[in-house]
Specification:
Layout (H helix, E strand, L loop, with lengths): L8 E9 L4 H10 L5 E4 L3 E7 L2 E15 L3 H11 L8 E4 L4 H10 L5
Antiparallel strand pairs: 1-4, 1-5, 2-4, 3-4
């Protein structure tokens, strides 16, 4: 069921504050051809260490579907758009059906 050459398909994770307009960020990434799809998940509680202090905040997880070729441009754009001093940027290679992987490839501008 999975395609044999999905090495270019990536899932990129980041978080935003629960009250941030994550949908606007998602729309910008899709409109600019940096992502085929962005999922904005429901607010959650994040507990993490920041500058020596354990902190708890409400955040939204953002799941970005993109390609390896678009990753540098996506990272650069997130550096500009993201409000955090140190945004989460976790990149996960992914496998998908051949049809879905092809759709992602067609939806993301390779020249981004």
């Amino acid at each position: 069921m999975t395609s044999t050459d999905d090495s270019s398909l990536l899932l990129v994770l980041t978080t935003l504050a629960a009250d941030a307009d994550a949908a606007a960020l998602a729309r910008t990434l899709v409109d600019e051809g940096l992502a085929a799809c962005v999922n904005v998940l429901a607010p959650m509680t994040s507990i993490y260490r920041w500058k020596g202090t354990v902190t708890q905040d409400r955040e939204q997880q953002i799941v970005i579907k993109t390609t390896r070729a678009a990753l540098p441009a996506l990272e650069a754009r997130l550096d500009v758009l993201h409000p955090y001093e140190l945004p989460e940027l976790v990149v996960i290679p992914a496998s998908a059906s051949a049809a879905y992987a092809a759709w992602v490839g067609l939806s993301v501008r390779e020249s981004s």
